[in-house]
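Dear colleagues,

For the upcoming journal club I promised to circulate an example of a predicted protein-ligand complex. I picked one with magnesium ion because it came up in last month's discussion. The inputs are reproduced below in full, followed by the predicted structure.
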Amino acid sequence: MNTLINVFSIIIAVLLSGCQQQRLYKDTRVLMGTFVEVISPEKRASKIAFDEMQRLENLLSKYKPDSEVSRLNAKGELKLSPEAFFIIKRSKDISQASGGAFDITVAPLVDLWGFTDRKFKIPQDTEIKETLKLVGSEKIVLNDSNNVVKFSFPGMKIDLGGIAKGYALDCAAKKLKDAGIKSCLINAGGQVYALGDKFGTPWMIGIKDPRRVEPTEFITLENQSTSTSGNYQQFFIKDGVRYAHIIDPKTGFPAKAGLISVTVTAPEGLTADALSTAIFVLGKEKGEALAKNFPQIKLMEVEEKTAKTQ
Ligand code: AMP
Ligand code: MG
């Protein structure tokens, strides 16, 4: 089902209402560069989820110098843990499925535009052209027999910012299930996983325009994840033009395909996360064509032409 909603941007509002005797515990922590909120009838749920997400941040973050990703980026070749190898392999698959719209090798472009150190700048065309030579998932060589990942060109780097949170939510949900927890909602900066239900009914997520008081759309989730990608989270404006953190790997410029945000709901957080990024790059028409290849997902897009501001 494709729904077009006329809002400028999306934030997630979790509805905590319910029977007064049925208590929900809520805990928040900054992890993976965002606020992570855990809501569950079980008090122990938050520690389990936070610990697992912290473990994955330590493994996959490009901002942590000791992470496997940072060490691979520094060396250009590394034997990885099976888990880090798995996520890079899935990233390559999604890159291929999306015709290169999703591509973790955009890291040097993300750096070039200043999104890594937040020193934003518009690069010279020649710099973009040079940097584009380092981009392309086909330039990542994977050796399945020993989990060694090798870049084909010096200077290549990967950035798992478009997929790692979704994967981390899947892992956290698994840890919670293994611990016997049947009901929990994790909201990691708009990337949500709903484990089980809330006192017998599905978790309900309100998606709203932050300039409005009430949510404009509601999604019910049960053992599902939802992810929103947009150009309103990390961006800078120069001479009236908005430059946002999702880069089109074909042009080397921030993606401008006519969408303001894309929300994907899927059984897996990893899929929801990677596809919302890919569809944001592709735009409405190509994005919807990609979504058709994933029958279990639901897609909501907000088009630029419905917005009144940059
Ligand atoms: P998301 O918020 O999940 O859409 O991910 C955006 C983040 O993914 C950015 O901040 C970058 O770290 C990274 N990224 C940017 N462009 C792409 C792209 N085309 N494919 C994959 N990851 C990207
Ligand atoms: Mg994503």
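Two points we might discuss: The chain has one domain: 8-309. Residues 102-104, 106, 110, 159, 161-162, 229, 245-247, 249, 273, 276-277, 281 surround adenosine monophosphate (ligand 1) (CB under 6 Å).

See you all on Thursday,
B. R.
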